[in-house]
Amino acid sequence: MSNGITIYQEGGTGQWLQQRASLLELDLEHPEKSLIIFAKPDSMKDQYSQYSHLFPEAFSPIICTDINGSFFCDDVLDENDNLVKHVSWSCFKIKLVHDPHNYQWVQPAIFMTWYPDTLNQVVFIIDHPLSPGELLQLLPTQRATHNPYTWHAAFAGTMMGQYDRSFWGLRDLVRETEKARDNPNDLDPEFFPRLHDIARHVFHSNETLEIAEHTLQSLLNEHVRSRELYSGISKGEWLHNERQLLFRAKQLHSLKTRSRSLAERLHNEINLGFNLVSQRFGSDAKSDNAMMKTVAIVSMVYLPGTFVSGLFGTNFFDYSDGKEVMTDSFWIYWAITIPLTLLTMLIWACWHYYPRKKPGPGPERRDTFPVKP
């Protein structure tokens, strides 16, 4: 590996042999044998000015920018309208989530140039999560010479495993939250922020799966057209690749459906979490209400004693000469206390009951009609 780029060349037995040459030393316009080139995205970005002449201008966003997915193909013709080479690429986007705060975006892409005169191919595989050794076990070991989309079907097959890995990582996070809320009194303060982060990841998963399905559908449409454009493709080879692409499309659709179901499941979990917390707050409110009732009862118990002590502490009683004598002005106490108490109760009753009083239904309307004899 040189600067994050690993090159394999087809051997005489159809196997792939690693090469020590650098990418700029290879003749990619007239390759003697088929080549597979694995590249890390950082290596391509840092040195893209050196490698830009190897790709069409429309391919630069795949390496230099952040996109959800892409598919494109084109034919290069000479002045006599003869096919010189066929160029195609497909790109996918995957979010691998390890925990709500630890995730990784990958943007795997395959760029392929097919030369119909020599049946050689130059295949770039960029930013794939698997190592070159693991990928070689999943990619064609023999030359896929007649159908330029065989590599795209194999590459899409490797993507299914990564999308499945992404989905199950999110599913495990959702399942952990479902187990965590079994006892609402033990909910962690980070419970709802965690749910928010997981929901964000699930939304991204749905988005990338939607785009991937559309990318694969575009690939399928172009593969159908290739049967008429390239006469060298045998019917059996074309049919086998068509079925492989349809199988990958079905897998992707299933993953998208499961991801949507996971989003609904998470949404239900968020609603349930809110309800559990609301119930806990309601229980706390009931407890506070019971406590206030207890305080009120205790206050009523001590209220007569307070009244008696307050009454005998006034100047209406004279204890001089060892005798208890009530003054003639004691009636003033009752004259003020009784009206004030009644007025207070009246204001409270009006404040408490008047807003709840609703006008009763009016008299029932009855239409009378003359009765014919």
UniProtKB/TrEMBL annotation:
<dbReference type="InterPro" id="IPR002523">
    <property type="entry name" value="MgTranspt_CorA/ZnTranspt_ZntB"/>
</dbReference>
<protein>
    <submittedName>
        <fullName>Uncharacterized protein</fullName>
    </submittedName>
</protein>
<dbReference type="GO" id="GO:0015095">
    <property type="term" value="F:magnesium ion transmembrane transporter activity"/>
</dbReference>
<keyword id="KW-1133">Transmembrane helix</keyword>
<keyword id="KW-0812">Transmembrane</keyword>
<dbReference type="GO" id="GO:0000287">
    <property type="term" value="F:magnesium ion binding"/>
</dbReference>
<dbReference type="Pfam" id="PF01544">
    <property type="entry name" value="CorA"/>
</dbReference>
<feature type="transmembrane region" description="Helical">
    <location>
        <begin position="331"/>
        <end position="351"/>
    </location>
</feature>
<dbReference type="GO" id="GO:0005886">
    <property type="term" value="C:plasma membrane"/>
</dbReference>
<feature type="transmembrane region" description="Helical">
    <location>
        <begin position="290"/>
        <end position="311"/>
    </location>
</feature>
<dbReference type="GO" id="GO:0015087">
    <property type="term" value="F:cobalt ion transmembrane transporter activity"/>
</dbReference>
<keyword id="KW-0472">Membrane</keyword>
<dbReference type="InterPro" id="IPR045863">
    <property type="entry name" value="CorA_TM1_TM2"/>
</dbReference>
<dbReference type="GO" id="GO:0050897">
    <property type="term" value="F:cobalt ion binding"/>
</dbReference>
